[in-house]
């Protein structure tokens, strides 16, 4: 049995090395321009990313280069643990989440055309059912990734946040009904999005405010935000690996998200 397992893993590594399996990076670069969510008063915002050089082969350290950095847990491409939201406060913080639950099949639901027409467009149950009619039922232990096309605005903060004349951000998300459906009718790991947070820009005004946060974390499921390169993934069949930092009692973490895609 050990020999069979070893052969399976070495074959996987061989396919990665010969590029028959592509490793796609779904992560934004972290720098001082990385967009972070901005909350209305009286709420306190998370810190953005900042970096301070310690030494770079100089008098402070002639043989080595290193830096200090500061940032919030929910900065850039990041992972939301259930305890991030009040509905999930009795679930596990990020350091206690079983690592097996950080790996799953990526299910990519494409709503890009609808978001081009309406930046406030939210995934519906009808969208999910249309996907399943074409590609099969969303399997257990999978990540549902909502491909809105929003990652293309990552370097343009004005378009990325898309704040209208009403002072509100207008970005895609998930309807209350669809968020509840995914959380309770499908046995998924969680939901991933390209926007700054897992809910629509207008989600504070929904009947259940911030439904992805509310229902996903209530159901002990996770969130991934500020993803990129979703256009490089097929609707089904790729494997997603999310690697948050093991922050003790953390509500989330910056994360490097990788997908394995068989060519």
Name its key features.
single chain; 263 residues; alpha/beta; seven-stranded mixed beta barrel; two-stranded antiparallel sheet; 6 helices; 12 strands; 21% helix; 27% strand; globular
What does this entry look like structurally?
The chain is of the alpha/beta class and 263 residues long. Helices cover 21% and strands 27% of the residues. It is built from 6 helices and 12 strands. It has helices spanning 2-17, 112-117, 125-135, 157-161, 176-185, 211-218; strands spanning 21-25, 50-58, 61-70, 78-80, 103-110, 122-123, 142-147, 173-174, 190-193, 222-225, 238-244, 252-262. Strands 4-10-9-7-5-11-12 form a 7-stranded mixed barrel. It has a two-stranded antiparallel ribbon with strand order 2-3. It is globular. The two termini are 28 Å apart. The mean pLDDT is 96.
**Distance between the ends:** 28 Å
For the largest beta-sheet, the strand count, sense and barrel status come to: 7 strands, mixed, barrel
Question: Based on helices, strands and strand pairing, what is the structural class?
Answer: alpha/beta
Strand content: 25-35%
User: How much helicity do the residues have?
Assistant: 10-25%
The total of helices stands at: 6
Q: Largest sheet, order of strands side by side?
A: 4-10-9-7-5-11-12
Low-confidence stretches: none
Number of strands: 12
Integer average pLDDT: 96
Secondary-structure element series: HEEEEEHEHEHEHEHEEE
Radius of gyration, CA atoms, in whole angstroms? 19 Å
Principal-axis shape? globular
């Amino acid at each position: 049995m050990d020999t069979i397992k070893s052969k399976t893993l070495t074959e996987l590594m061989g396919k990665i090395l010969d590029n028959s399996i592509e490793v796609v990076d779904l992560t934004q670069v972290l720098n001082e321009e990385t967009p972070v969510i901005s909350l209305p008063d009286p709420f306190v915002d998370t810190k953005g990313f900042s970096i301070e050089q310690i030494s770079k082969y100089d008098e402070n350290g002639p043989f080595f280069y290193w830096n200090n950095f500061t940032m919030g847990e929910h900065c850039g491409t990041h992972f939301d643990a259930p305890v991030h939201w009040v509905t999930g406060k009795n679930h596990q913080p990020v350091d206690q989440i079983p690592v097996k639950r950080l790996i799953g099949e990526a299910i990519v639901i494409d709503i890009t055309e609808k978001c081009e027409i309406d930046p406030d467009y939210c995934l519906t149950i009808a969208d999910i059912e249309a996907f399943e009619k074409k590609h099969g039922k969303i399997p257990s232990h999978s990540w549902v990734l909502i491909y809105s096309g929003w990652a293309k605005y990552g370097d343009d903060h004005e378009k990325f946040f898309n704040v209208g004349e009403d002072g509100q951000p207008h970005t895609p998300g998930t309807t209350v009904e669809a968020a509840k459906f995914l959380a309770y009718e499908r046995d998924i790991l969680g939901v991933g999005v390209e926007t700054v947070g897992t809910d629509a820009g207008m989600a504070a005004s929904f009947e259940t405010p911030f439904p992805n946060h509310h229902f996903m974390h209530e159901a002990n499921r996770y969130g991934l935000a500020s993803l990129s390169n979703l256009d490089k993934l097929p609707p089904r069949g790729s494997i997603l690996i999310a690697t948050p930092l093991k922050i003790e009692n953390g509500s989330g973490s910056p994360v490097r998200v990788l997908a394995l895609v068989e060519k």
